[in-house]
Amino acid sequence: MIVTLTLNPSLDRTIDVDRLVQGTMTRARSARIDPGGKGVNVSRALLANRAPTVAVVTSGGADGEQLVRLLEGDGIAVHAVPVAGRTRSNVTIVEPDGVVTKVNEPGEPLSRDELDAVADAVLAEAEGASWVVACGSLPPGVPSDIYARLCEFFASAGVRVAVDASGPALPAAVGAGPHLVKPNRDELAEAVGRPVASVGDAVEAACELRERGAGAVLASLGADGAVLVDEDGVTAGTAPVAEPRSTVGAGDALLAGFLAAGARGAPALAEGLAWGAAAVRLPASRMPRPGDIRRDIVRIDTRPDLGRSLIA
Ligand SMILES: Nc1ncnc2c1ncn2[C@@H]1O[C@H](COP(=O)(O)OP(=O)(O)O)[C@@H](O)[C@H]1O
Ligand SMILES: O=P(O)(O)OC[C@H]1O[C@](O)(COP(=O)(O)O)[C@@H](O)[C@@H]1O
């Protein structure tokens, strides 16, 4: 069982327009609403591929109720923690040439009691779980070490923790020794304080996060695929997509596939890449089902000296 935690879930509103012109009224060609937030997407991808999962989410106001209804309608086991603040909406505007403009609301603050209620929910669901996966931005006012505290708590409980975070929450979590972190290129660069332009830069930065405490680093690199740096060394892979539809949720699908395949080594990386590529071929933040996933396009490099060759 994989328990996901989304402290800042969202209704993901995807709007297709012919052309987005700032400062003008544009009539949309179509629009859709999906349940969102990074942990939510991980659970959505896992469920779509029949991997057992529970999504722990905060839920506030009518939008929070709609989020829970959408998830339950998709058959996802949800542990919703009621909160006073309204659940946010994240808007993605897509133009025919593939240009995507995304505006994410910050979300509403959580009170101390609400954070305690979330902790109790995760604790209850984590009983017997193989992973707790904490993903996404933190609502305003939530301490940036919240994921770190989760890592410390579950380390003593023998439950593995994966973190997909941005900003100060990522280095704080790394220092608490998570089993796995899943930064994208920008998050990796921010965590090490230098650009990550090449795959070699990503490997070097991932090695630094391991030295600082992370057990394994699954670094996603957009169209350049992903690299995995763990106790077995460095593995890199790609899964090219000729006509990307939407990259929203691709990182979450990559993480879900990696976890579903055992979260270690080349086979798990390959599965994550296949799920990530499948998500990119789908519109909005649709998560791939078994029929969407193509494993033949995945290329994995497992040369033993790969790390040195990429960094040199
Ligand atoms: N343009 C693309 N072509 C092919 N695969 C892609 C593309 N964009 C993303 N992916 C896949 O999705 C994964 C996650 O994408 P990325 O943008 O790095 O993460 P995030 O969504 O977390 O920012 C990548 O590792 C890759 O496997
Ligand atoms: O594209 P990614 O990084 O896989 O995640 C997509 C998800 O992240 C979100 O953009 C939220 O991200 P934040 O929590 O960082 O604001 C959601 O709208 C969307 O469901």
TrEMBL record:
It is an enzyme of class 2 (transferase). InterPro entries: 1-PFruKinase (IPR022463), Carboh/pur_kinase_PfkB_CS (IPR002173), PfkB_dom (IPR011611), Ribokinase-like (IPR029056), Tagatose/fructose_Pkinase (IPR017583). Signal peptide: none annotated. Its EC number is 2.7.1.56. Coiled coil: none annotated. Pfam families: PfkB. Catalyzes the ATP-dependent phosphorylation of fructose-l-phosphate to fructose-l,6-bisphosphate. NCBIfam families: 1-PFK, pfkB. Belongs to the carbohydrate kinase PfkB family. PANTHER family: 1-PHOSPHOFRUCTOKINASE, 1-PHOSPHOFRUCTOKINASE-RELATED. This is 1-phosphofructokinase. It comes from Actinomadura violacea.
